[in-house]
Amino acid sequence: MASIFTKIVNGEIPSYKVAETEEFYAFLDINPNAEGHTLCIPKKEVDKIWDLDEALYNRLMTFSRKVALAIESVVPCKRVGMSVIGLEVPHVHVHLIPLNKMADATFQSKVTLEKEAFEALSQKITRAYLASNK
Ligand code: AMP
């Protein structure tokens, strides 16, 4: 059965898209640790990050770096942290989390956002991402 993230890539489940390439997709985490918490995934469905072939892993890191720099340029934060967990969704995803305090990295304190706030954030990050890729 397709993962929930494959369904997002295929447009069967909605998402707040941030960036997309032929191979990768980035979208806002629906239960964010902090405003701007973004997930970067390979479209190819692989469960564990260490099972990606090395070249795809490296390209995922390059994509995630571009997205992280875009987030950092528009979301107020001290830095953008990166985590890979995967205990909930068995489809590789890199968490990019704007950090202001250690609790933002813990996945135990969450923020609640309205649809409009998700939309505004995703549009802001997308604009920064596209501007950096001109
Ligand atoms: P983990 O697999 O533990 O790294 O966590 C999976 C992450 O995916 C969690 O932070 C969830 O909030 C997030 N998530 C699950 N379903 C969706 C969805 N439909 N849209 C966006 N984020 C999601």
UniProtKB/TrEMBL annotation:
It holds the Pfam family HIT. This is HIT family protein. GO terms for molecular function: catalytic activity. One of its GO terms (biological process) is nucleotide metabolic process. It comes from Croceivirga radicis. The active site is at 93 (tele-amp-histidine intermediate). SUPFAM superfamilies: HIT-like (SSF54197). InterPro entries: Histidine_triad_HIT, HIT-like, HIT-like_sf. A motif (Histidine triad motif) lies at residues 91-95.
